[in-house]
Amino acid sequence: MIKLLHTADWHLGKRLDHVSRLEEQRAVLEEICEIAEREAVHMVIVAGDLFDQINPPTEAIDLLYKTLRRLTDHGRRPVIAIAGNHDSPDRIEAPDPLARACGIIFAGYPGSVLQPFGLETGLEVTHTAPGYLRLQIPGVEVPVSVLLTPYANEIRLRQFLGNENPDQALRTLLGAQWAHLAATADPAGITLLAAHLCMMAPGGEVPVEPEDEKPILTIGGLREIYPDIIPPGVQYTALGHLHRCHQVGTGAVWYSGSPLAYSMSEAGQAKYVLIATLTPGQPAEVERVRLTAGKPLIRVTCQGVAAATEWLREHPDAWVELTLETDTYLSAQDRRQLYEIHSGIITIIPRVTDPETIVQENPSIDLSQDMETLFKAYFQHKQGQLPDDPLMDLFREMLSQESAS
Fold first, then answer.
1. 11, 81, 206, 304: least surrounded by Cβ within 10 Å?
2. Per-position b or e across 16-42, b if 16+ CB within 10 A of its CB
């Protein structure tokens, strides 16, 4: 029997608009480490998007390595981390020699061949092939095989699969590759799949990707990856990319989701890690463990400044997208007052409800109009209201400076 902790989409270094989330990320990764210790898991899979960008900030890199090292429990627990579409494969694999000495296994490419190794703790990688490794884990009597499919663009994936025929669906090729690798696994052991891609149930709705997420649905034949291409010998599939924790189909195919809500499209989502208990020849038992660290993201609509002020004071510990419905435009003073009341406002969306206040939008833009009129029309289009007097004064000052120069 083995207990696996599945997590993904850490997006270390990601900001929410102008706000750094690093302290929240540090807190939630601390919580994940505590869950791993409390549940006495035997291994951990981080299914991609370790960072939010190819060149992450130093603080994010430091947080990743310290967290993964802690999760290894001094080399007794393997931690497998694969690259996602936000990661640089080379950066992910760069620390491999030092990482292996700690029990951390990085895979940046689908065709990466990992080096077998053994630690004094008893953790050992006994066999490897492109996209495959077999582990012997302390306290686990049977071998554990892991199929690895980090994110790859269409060209890179076709090269890995050995086929450049554009008419052949990549999902078919990928299914054949997984079947080939699964056939090399020890049938008396446990076989897992870790992948960063977009998978959906046949006939189901196309999954909605988070705001600001780099779409990977339209990569060749990968648009319609179904769980039925997963070989029957794979007992659990650990997926990354989609930020909502959910099961794909009816088998043990899961997205763990991100540990924090990273965009307002995720407002109200509960966040989890998954604990999968696996026994050879038996269906996986999967438990969702809710994460509590980090501020919630809330979208709220209030009628007027007074109602907004009251709501904000009642919800001080949240990141907020505030839609404010008013009879007239939102003044700079009102906006400033709201930001002073609540430090977690990400954006204020004014919505003018009085039709007499709303200026009808022209069906086309008359570029012969003066700059002041064009600016008012643009502001009205973007913000749903006319700019107030202080903003117009500032705009006129900028125009005068431009004319003087």
1. 206
2. beeeebbebbbbbbebbbebbeebebb
Pairing of the two strands 144-149 and 190-196: parallel
**372 contacts 349 by C-beta, under 8 angstroms:** no
Integer Cα distance of 89 and 49 in angstroms = 10
Say if CB 239 and CB 247 are below 8 A apart: no
pLDDT digits (tens, 9 = 90+) for 125-160: 999 999 999 999 999 999 999 999 999 877 788 788
CA distances from 132 to 180, 317, 361 (A): 10, 44, 59
Question: What are residue 200's phi and psi, to 5 degrees?
Answer: -140, 160
Rg from Cα positions in the chain:
25
Query: Quick check: helix, strand or coil at residue 401?
Result: helix
Query: How many CA atoms does the CB half-sphere of 177 hold within 13 Å?
Result: 23
Three-class DSSP category at 72: coil
